[in-house]
């Protein structure tokens, strides 16, 4: 299917194993240009491994990845030029100033002398550029890390948990900043996080990773609008309740001791709950609870992040 917006990052069946463990399992990332793409997953879900694959720091066992249309495996250097990254280990020289640190990176990359000041301006660190990094707060170091990722103006920025370790004020600051980043830096931003709230506040798009698999992906607003509601039924006779609900055209399933009825997208949960109630009552099914609820991204995320059931 053709895409309305070109993709800044695209993977197909991207897979990476460590021994018997599949850390990244056939994922198809689609990150539209100029989006802030929230890459969401619990610790160990495979976010860092995916990011390393995108940056060419790890080799894929299967599948492919493209950055700004360039294949990461077959054209590694050209792809690397298209992406700037902020990873956990920043590796700044504490006794050098912020500007001096950036200038070292700038020279290594063979970029013009004006680059450090250009990126310092973007991250609003120009006033602190002459201070030693040793005297920076963690938030200032993160900004400096962001500035370094922007050297050479790559069209794609990949940021691994950029708010990790910041204090509440630093977090609020960084979130505001991230939202504005596509415009300020003229770039697409992939932002990894284990916090749904963070992604909901900053991202335009989201991809949820659970146990190495991409469980859900798309524009945040569309995903939220498309989430169907459901009705949970508490009953002593779940099998019978499922049969009755299905005979009335509802998509019902057992969920442990309860029965869950998934509604169609846009279907109003209260009306459906009333109809179900009536049908169950008429059929003589004892119901002790009937709860209509709107499904949320949070619920989906929780489901995606649940530990895999151990094989019996
Ligand atoms: N070099 C490695 N060798 C063996 N296993 C690894 C290696 N790197 C990652 N893993 C495993 O792959 C899985 C995914 O790890 P990954 O670091 O990508 O997750 P993550 O979502 O980034 O989590 P975190 O936020 O904790 O870094 C984990 O089970 C991890 O133990």
UniProtKB/TrEMBL annotation:
<keyword id="KW-0547">Nucleotide-binding</keyword>
<dbReference type="InterPro" id="IPR003593">
    <property type="entry name" value="AAA+_ATPase"/>
</dbReference>
<dbReference type="GO" id="GO:0016887">
    <property type="term" value="F:ATP hydrolysis activity"/>
</dbReference>
<dbReference type="Pfam" id="PF00005">
    <property type="entry name" value="ABC_tran"/>
</dbReference>
<dbReference type="InterPro" id="IPR003439">
    <property type="entry name" value="ABC_transporter-like_ATP-bd"/>
</dbReference>
<dbReference type="InterPro" id="IPR027417">
    <property type="entry name" value="P-loop_NTPase"/>
</dbReference>
<keyword id="KW-0813">Transport</keyword>
<keyword id="KW-0067">ATP-binding</keyword>
<dbReference type="GO" id="GO:0005524">
    <property type="term" value="F:ATP binding"/>
</dbReference>
<comment type="similarity">
    <text>Belongs to the ABC transporter superfamily.</text>
</comment>
<protein>
    <submittedName>
        <fullName>ABC transporter ATP-binding protein</fullName>
    </submittedName>
</protein>
<dbReference type="InterPro" id="IPR017871">
    <property type="entry name" value="ABC_transporter-like_CS"/>
</dbReference>
<feature type="domain" description="ABC transporter">
    <location>
        <begin position="9"/>
        <end position="236"/>
    </location>
</feature>
């Amino acid at each position: 299917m053709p895409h309305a917006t070109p993709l800044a990052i695209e993977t197909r069946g991207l897979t990476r194993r460590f021994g018997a463990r599949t850390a990244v399992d056939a994922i198809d990332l689609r990150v539209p240009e100029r989006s802030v793409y929230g890459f969401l997953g619990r610790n160990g879900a495979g976010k860092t491994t995916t990011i390393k694959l995108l940056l060419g720091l790890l080799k894929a066992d299967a599948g492919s990845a493209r950055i700004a249309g360039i294949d990461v495996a077959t054209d590694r250097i050209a792809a690397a030029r298209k992406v700037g990254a902020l990873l956990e280990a920043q590796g700044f020289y504490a006794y050098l100033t912020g500007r001096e640190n950036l200038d070292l990176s700038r020279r290594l990359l063979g970029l013009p002398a004006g680059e450090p000041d250009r990126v310092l301006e973007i991250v609003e660190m120009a006033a602190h550029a002459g201070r030693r990094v040793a005297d920076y707060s963690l938030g200032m170091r993160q900004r400096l890390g962001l500035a370094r990722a922007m050297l050479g103006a790559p069209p794609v920025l990949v940021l691994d948990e950029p708010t990790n370790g910041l204090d509440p004020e630093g977090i609020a600051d960084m979130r505001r900043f991230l939202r504005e980043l596509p415009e300020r830096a003229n770039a697409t931003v992939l932002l990894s996080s284990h916090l749904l709230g963070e992604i909901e506040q900053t991202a335009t798009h989201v991809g949820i990773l659970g146990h190495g698999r991409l469980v859900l992906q798309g524009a945040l607003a569309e995903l939220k609008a498309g989430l169907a509601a459901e009705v949970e039924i508490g009953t002593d006779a779940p099998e019978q309740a499922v049969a009755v609900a299905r005979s009335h055209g509802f998509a019902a399933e057992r969920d442990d001791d309860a029965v869950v009825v998934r509604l169609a997208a846009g279907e109003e949960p209260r009306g459906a709950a009333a109809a179900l109630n009536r049908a169950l009552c008429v059929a003589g099914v004892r119901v002790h609870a009937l709860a209509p609820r709107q499904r949320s991204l949070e619920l989906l995320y929780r489901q995606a992040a649940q530990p895999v059931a151990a094989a019996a």
